[in-house]
Amino acid sequence: MEGQVREISLILLNCGMGGNGDGITNAIARLGENMAASRCSLLDYNDENRGFDLFQQWCAPGTAPLEADFHIPAVVVAPYHTRLLRGEAVIVSRDRTDRDNIEYSLLEAGGAHSVLCLPILRDGSLEGVLILSFPTSQPELQWPAEIRPLQVTADLIGAALARKRLAGELEHQASHDVLTGLNNRRKFEELLLQEIERTSRYQRPFAVIMFDIDHFKRINDRHGHDIGDAVLNELATIVGEQVRDSDIPARWGGEEFIVLLPETGTEGARQAAEGRLRRRIAETLFTGAGRVTISLGVTQYQSGDTLDSLVKRADEALYRAKEEGRDRVVVG
């Protein structure tokens, strides 16, 4: 058991400070193999749906994997919550659990005869559960000689999971606008360069829509910057809802936004700008500000375009939309 802890510790250390998924997967696999389990599953607590979602799993040959959206409601773990919070391992077995008990679903979900649940704790709260499933009766484990190393192993995996979560949060902060949650300019430019490269290679069209809020300074002056921020946030939400999953919206800066539309020509982008953005936003009553309009510039990628030339053409079209009276779409 002690050798197992050292081995898994080395696996997780070698995966780097980011706690990458491969390192966690390898650690879970080694734990499952060493324990002769049929499955080893790491579940991460999700506060939004009040339960534990599958994060990683390892399955022995012949064992069907759990569905990617596998979820255990918190109420299922509730009978053991206090023990898990104390850092104790919990064994649930068909030999000891009545079918009417809600925790019996722990066994049925994984098709196991018994499961060993190890808590993943962080700052005194239950952040996840590491579950070893067995096809036969509960494992014969001696406390504390064998259970304690398993808990240490769970702690190591939990620490790697926390590092991965932190790395993901930092990456998101570096690439997204704090106020609106949209991609920031740096991230958008990175994605736009990738799309230019893809289009140059495969000769596929794409377009860009650049737009800003008409008379935004007037909104800030009349209603205050808090209302101005609320307008930006509400507008970003509308944009996120209106664009396609394949489209990439971003906050370009200030009250200016930009959208990348892959596999889209000039006319398709113009229709999207007019129907899904300009008209939809003009119909919205924004909190504290009422009606708001936007002016939009649309352009399609042309052979030989650089990032700067493409964005400049979209910006010039936006400028013409302003000159022609605002609240309109202009193609450049």
UniProtKB/TrEMBL annotation:
Q: Annotated Gene Ontology MF terms?
A: diguanylate cyclase activity
Q: Which CDD domains match?
A: GGDEF (cd01949)
Q: Which residues form the GGDEF domain?
A: 204-332
Listed EC numbers: 2.7.7.65
Q: What class of enzyme is it?
A: transferase
Put simply, this protein is called: diguanylate cyclase
Spell out the InterPro entries in the cross-references.
Answer: Diguanylate_Cyclase, GAF, GAF-like_dom_sf, GGDEF_dom, Nucleotide_cyclase, Rev_trsase/Diguanyl_cyclase
Pfam families tied to this protein = GAF, GGDEF
